[in-house]
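B., you asked whether I could sanity-check this one before it goes into the benchmark set. Here's the sequence:
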Amino acid sequence: MSLSLNDITLTYPDGDTRLTALDRVSLEVPRGSLTAVVGPSGSGKSSLLAVAATLITPDTGTVTIDGTSTTGLGRGELTELRRGRIGIVFQQPNLLPSLTAAEQLQVMAHIDGRSPAGARGRAMALLDAVGLADQAGRRPHQLSGGQRQRVNIARALMNDPTVLLVDEPTSALDHERGTAVLDLLVRLTHDRDTATVLVTHDRTHLAAADRTAEVRDGRLVPVPRPAK
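And here's what the prediction gave me:
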């Protein structure tokens, strides 16, 4: 397993009490597979993703990334773990307007302290993998919504992660472009052997996933995968 959540409980302050966002949730995601997590707004999907990304520490339970337990790790150690092993695709691409598609990726290598010498070549290889090699010199305003999301995905892969966490990647796209992005995520998951978790409210794309689960009132319930 590359990503393992075991008996996770997460609560938030709510006046004089605490609101339970995740209630004894367990999830195993092998490398080379994509697990889709669905559920309505406020069900706990985003909290699940934040815990998996080590951005939030749960009240109880353990998170294991590529064999490394996050229990007891300090802030700096968690940051290093995210940089080296976790890629995050946020709902909004949030690309820097002044940078080209290739530079969006190259800046990640700079943040990670990697040599700039190989960053350009890796950025171009990833843009080619998402079908945007010919758009490498374009800035965000020159790209379509689907193209910007593809840059967002390529950027998340720049550190060669073992775990890829994807938050509502098709929410701002029409069905055709959304389907193309989902197909891309499935292909990259298998080609790059990542353990991918896709959080979405859109059930129309679930047939593309290897596994599906639903968050209901903070609990994670496996659901049958629709026939392809």
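One thing to flag: The longest strand covers residues 17-29. Otherwise nothing jumped out at me.
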